[in-house]
Amino acid sequence: MNLHEWLPLLILGSSLLTGICIFFLAEEQRGLRTFLNLAGAFIKLALVVYMVVGMARGETYETRFPIVLGFDFVLKADSLSLLLVGLSSGLWLLTTVYAIGYLEHWKNRSRFFGFFSFCVTASVGVALAGNPITFFIFYEFLTLSTYPLVIHRGSVEALRAGRTYLWYTMAGGALVFTGVVWLHVLVGSVDFREAGVLAVVDPSLYPSLTLIFALLICGLGVKAALVPLHGWLPVAMVAPAPVSALLHAVAVVKAGAFGIVRVVYDLFGVQFADQLGLLTPLTIAASITILYGSLRALTQDDLKKRLAYSTVSQVSYIALGVSMIGATATIGGLVHLVHQGIMKITLFFCAGIFAETVHVKAISNMNGIGRRFPLTMGAFTIGALGMIGVPPVAGFISKWYLGLGAMASGQPWVLLVLLGSTALNAGYFLPVLYRAWFRDPDGPWHEEGPVGRLEAPWMLLVPCLITGLLSLLTGVFAGADWSPLSLARIIAMKEYLP
Amino acid sequence: MSPLWILAALLYPLAGVIAAMVPRTPSVVVRFWMATLALPALAVALALPTGTSLETAYLLLGNPLAWTDLSRLFLLFTSILWSIAGLYACFYTMPDPRFRGYAACFLASFAGNAGLFFSTDIPQFYTFFAVMTFSAYGLVVHTRTPEAVRAGQLYIGMAVLGEMMVLSGLIWLAYSGGSLLLSDAPAAVAASPHRTWIIALLLFGFGVKAGLLPVHVWLPLAHPVAPTPASAVLSGAMIKAGLFGWLVFLPGGVGAYPGWGSLLLGGGLLAALGAAFAGMTQTHPKANLAYSSISQMGVLTMGLGMGLNNPEAWELVTGVLAFYALNHALAKGSLFLAVGAAHAASREITRRWVLVGSLLAALVLVGGPWTGGSLSKAALKKLGSHAPEIWSGHVGWLLAVSAFATTLLLVRFLFLQWESMKHASAHSSSQADQGVLWTWGGSVLICLGVPWLVAWHGGIPIKSGAMGLDQVLKAWPILLGAVVGYGWLRRSVIRPSIPAGDLGLWVLAGSSAVARWWVGSVAPRMESVDLYSDRAVEMLVPDERAAPTWLDGADRTLRGLAWAGSAIMTLSFLLWWSTGS
After folding, report:
1. Do A228 and B160 touch (CB under 8 A)?
2. Of A260, A403, B209, B423, whose CB is crowded by the most CB atoms within 10 A?
3. A191 is a domain residue
4. Is A38 among the domain residues?
């Protein structure tokens, strides 16, 4: 065993161990807990950077050992996993800082941060998983580690939301499990590989494969919040803001969307899935989700709920891009995996700041909030414009590639879906911006504490500004070599030119 | 001159946006920035050779920033007008406590406006266009009055509609042509099997900005409510961005499109005359000018129609249209600024000067003798031979009718100007008022002089005799219009009148009805659909306490039969063991 075999495991371990250690801390050991949290986050980020640099030099990193019943446990770094690993570990660091600031006065912080670390472990595991069974293990681990976070408040509403969440995701997990086992029975042990591994099977298995595909997509669709499997997401927004931020940006919904990407590209292969006629239903499901989520978002007055429905809509851009054949659409879907993450986390960070510092949760109470929180609202504006797809924010890049991909795949009606979504996004984000910037405040703000030199505690403000700025920069400098767009291009090339 | 100046021209106003938003920046710095926002761009327009390109592989999708002769002319008048308006705004916003917000939106809009002319690929172009459009919203609603908010709604709604049409047209075009470069765009449109759709989308998409009928509706509502320098750039410069979009993307030079040509000539004529009539009946001077812009853009649309009809004439047409746009931009800018000057003028003598200045700018706009307007009108008239056959004999007199109508409209404007000054109470002249007046005076001189300078530098061929006395006779439609207008339009209310915003009022009413219906009837039903999913979970797991009792019962029964279980297990084991051995 050398570093090449250990590195993926170390990356997981950096947050898993952090989580375990934190569970053993007493509630008042605040300094140590903070240190552990940040140390874990930094170590993970450093390891990921090391891995990225190594991969750029052509190194490969893979951990593999057998577990039960002929299943292998495989962690492997490829370009696709880099997208999610990079996103998770980067945003985890920021969210950790934010959460430390946010939960200042809350109870059970050790429990919270323990599960918080587990949650990131799971999401990185999902990203690095090299075969379906490993993927499933982390997928379920993610469900279990996020449940305590969702119900952290402990209120009746939170418990109800938690129950809904658990039922949805457990049912989804069961579907995925059935699909994975069935697949194992049919074709034995398979690893994820670029351009898919199933195209070579006997044609007599095609009907079974179709069913397996349906099972997997339905199971993954629960977390990816495909309509009508999305019911848990708007309910789960009772979770504390950092959890919502993580849930909506990198952890749960991304795990679902990422799973769909894996299944389509690295299990079935996009050409083969198309040959089986599996892609069009997915395109339709994604399109319906995109429009439905936006339509529902229009009338929500609770800011977090509006954002939640927006997530329902936006995450399906990923599935949409994946379900259309052609490199351009692929680039659009994959790059949105990252773009949606940074934009949405920004919006939730902002919502958290408003709720924590001045108790503003409803959009109707946001009149003139831009004057009280110019920087936060600036970040929010960037995120919201990005969601609409206004250039030069990152969301435009996604939308451009998706639109072009829709044309290239011979499905111009998808362009109409994208345009409709643009209009609806404008319809529910622009009024928020209008209220915040162009209306006068209704009265003095209900300040939580004394207002310092900064508009909000720095631990809340700084992560929010960083992600807001990133949303802008990844769009403006999309042409740079290190941009998510460049990475998505590389992945798409591998998928289409094996 | 280094190509980095291109970056400087764009980054200078953008840096100003940030400076304006930082509360600690001294006001004087923000004002200075606003007054000088377009100077680097102006320097570029004057000194940087066209064709210069700046490699920006890291920006957006990686194409360079560069520029052409056409964009040079556009950048020239855009930066001149923004410079004047910036200086003007610097004084105009002096009493305004919210001027930082104004400055931020103003600077950002300019960056978008100027960036258009350096774009070499479609995403860049769309980016700058969007930056301009969305930032300008802040200018429209700046005063926060109910009228401004309503105008802002229509503005942003139409803008989003326009952006959607532009985006879909551009995506379609990029897909058909397989290239993102602007230089390949017209050929790609021409070669596309879906040409008609692409042309329609781009025409109406950019038409929202350019005030094309019937997507012009936001102009007459937005211009009166925006602060005066903002109206000037909206109506003078940003409206031309729509024209620039047409000239860059439409396939005029690649093929002949007599159908589109006729349609644009007809639509343009309708706009030129209809908007002029609507403008005559306005009671607000800025609404009157907004209709004048729609009318003038109608004339430009007619020119565009001639270009689309005849590919050989395209290059000539784009040149003439650009010059016409320059003339209109400077004159219209000056006229809008005159509205503010009228408010600033406190003494009787100043008021008279304001009226004279307004008259001069109006003459430039309408094409009075010895003005740049007459040059551009004459050049446009000569293009008539390139119009589709049924039109070609009529362009000349139709333009004369349009000049007549425009004159009526401007007579009305002068009357409204005079009215507003007459009723204004005398007030002491502040430093801000002085600044406004002097800046505006400069703008009048500029709109008189700059078109000639540009024409002499080869912007447009000048016929001999353009300075001759007979020019006065050639301007008979204007003389006639002045006489008729003086007789007819002196009353304060003209009947029948068209409310400012015309069709836009229906659009607003219709969309708010749809919104009410959605919030009242549709949304609650959708809400209940989502509740079902919650209830489904409830039904599956009613509650921990109410776990299914029959399972409990089954369990109890099994417990009671413990001995039976053991017996079965033992028996099975024995059976297995015996068969195995």
Report:
1. no
2. B209
3. no
4. no
